[in-house]
């Protein structure tokens, strides 16, 4: 017979084991619940991030397509504002750079809450508009004409020595080659990124050798405004530790320019792209036709284009006169961001200081005074120079960069694209011979 005390001791031990098992079970359940919570939270964060990423990307795509539609409607907008422009400037308007104002004009689509917040100031309420509403995402559009930059690539509509000379003269002028002294001189008085001494002419020649189709070295003479060939163009690259050869084909991207002799970080930041986040400030392009739009081009670009023909004028040789031109142009555009020139001839008239009371230079002279030190000294353009310069100045844009940044939550997607609207460009099949109203993609990249 088992005694009562023995039975009670056994029961106590069983209870102790049960308590331990219960504690172990609770510990296991707590670990499982913590792991489940962590997995669920991680899955939720990933799903939210992917949702925001998708929203941001499609918002960026919408920004690109809406800007294309806005550009396609430019002729109708120009017709509407023509009477007002005619009254103000005294001549018909050129193509209007509507793309420059795309982010503001398309705000109801890109930032619905922002547009609604300004309804009291603008008097426009979009709450009743069909197809417009809060998408929990926004987009920021930056669009600009590529022909408002100096083209460094094989020009679209120039060939042979004309193409080489055009690129060489422009880029040499952009580097301050015709100024004495030039503020950029110290950049060419030190070793480049490869430990070589590279002059302006060396870099200009190497740039052309990269995209021309022969294997001979280009020799550029800025004084005679000529290019000749002679010698092997790959010698400089073959002497490098990691040797390579010139491409002998047009540039496919702006970053490819870094492979050209003499293009280091300092050179890149000075002449190519100072800030990648603000491509609208870029001075060069690889998508240009060789002509420049004076209504949109930065004054440094206009100066380089003009000085590629008027090499002996004070505007091109005197750094002080060049600085006046740049400052004056920047100030005028800051005050009145409108296209002042209906044709290339109007811009040449401005350079010569001529025109009527409604033309830009006489207007500035009236505001600042006849002998104002802020006015640059007018140039003299001969008939022969005018004939050369006229096709190099256009007041329309056919190739546009459209960069859109979509944002939703913490997700940000930037879409960089280059659109071609030129009627002379023939798309491949099945649309051969037809230029779509919304243009053709030259370049498309999602970041």
How is this fold's topology laid out?
Blueprint: H1 4-72, H2 74-89, H3 102-105, H4 107-110, H5 112-117, H6 119-122, E1 138-145, E2 150-151, H7 160-174, H8 200-211, E3 216-221, E4 226-232, H9 235-238, H10 265-272, E5 284-285, H11 299-307, H12 314-317, H13 319-335, H14 344-351, H15 360-368, H16 383-389, E6 399-408, E7 411-420, E8 440-446
Helix pairs in contact: 7-8, 7-11
Write a structural description:
The chain has a domain at 1-148 and 395-447. 44% of the residues lie in helices and 12% in strands. The protein has 16 helices and 8 strands. α7 packs antiparallel against α8 and α7 packs across α11 (299-307). The chain is globular, with a radius of gyration of 32 Å.
Key phrases:
two-stranded parallel ribbon, alpha+beta, 447 residues, 4-stranded antiparallel beta sheet, single chain
Main sheet record: 4 strands, antiparallel
Into which percent range does the helicity of residues fall? 40-55%
Poorly predicted ranges: none
How do the strands line up in the largest sheet? Answer: 1-6-7-8
Summary, kept brief:
It contains 16 helices and 8 strands. The protein is an alpha+beta fold.
